[in-house]
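Why do we care about 3D structure at all? Because function follows from shape, and shape follows, mostly, from sequence. That is the central idea of this module. The next example makes it concrete: a single protein chain, its amino acid sequence, and then its structure expressed as tokens.
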Amino acid sequence: MSHPRRTSRRRAWTALTLPVLLCALAACSADPAAGGSADAAGPARDASPTPTGPPGTLFDDFDYTGADDPSLAAHGWEIRTGGGGPGIKDTWSADGASFLSDPAAEGGKVLRLRSSTDGTEQGTTQVEVQTTSRNFFTGTFAARIHLSDRPTSGRNGDHVVQTFFPISSSDSSENYSELDFEYLPNGGWGSTGPQLDNVSWYKADPPDRVHKTLERRLGGWHTMMITAMDGKVTYSLDGKELFTSSGKYVPREQMDIHFSSWFIDLPFTGDPRTWDTKVDWVYYKADEAVSPADLRKTVADFHSTGTGYVNTVPKP
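And the structure:
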């Protein structure tokens, strides 16, 4: 079960995001005819104003050309490059995030989160992609995610954590809120895995949370859903309810949405190994409990109309 994030998760608008924002403001697209170089993945989508769509809805199928696509920042995403934990402290890198075509993706492309290690702190990189707005509270959170049971390359055995979670912007908040999907293919913190932990938090430090563990190997594509409504939080996997929390273990303030891949510890050194997690799409509906059937229909409708991004969630 997840340990609290005891060190800062502060956002870092560093060398990755600042040029992106400057580029977006200056409308600086590459023009091959003027001597510029075109992106091999095609032109970046227009970083247009928030589109119209169903009220209180976020949907993104991660159809971006790369981490430097101006639309990524314009659509409210950033790639973590700052310090802190969890896992191997201060090893967060933008190099682990990429956007690739995938035949199994319903929208055609995925956000790939690649963490890597050779068993040393210096040879480790962790990756996290998160929203820049913290306007997600009650309602339905969902994402289609490909989990990995084995590394893409290298020897198996790392205590890697593959995650999807909304969380407060500060660990020290008086109204701290965090709702976790955490997959540990090789376990960790004394467990052997494989396991999927669902954790609802009340406080980060000292840790105060409730959880339930599903002990099952889950490599492959899954739809993860968190419904936070009417004084309870329900976690579902592929339409099947796994765990419900209530009482004080419900959201108490607005949160942001994160995807990450990180290492609990470094159990062995040796050849480098890489771990890949893929995200097909993410969805949020404010103040509504969306059924799995309605979620499937909504996402299918977005794809059938060529809608890759919607954000009509009210600003905080």
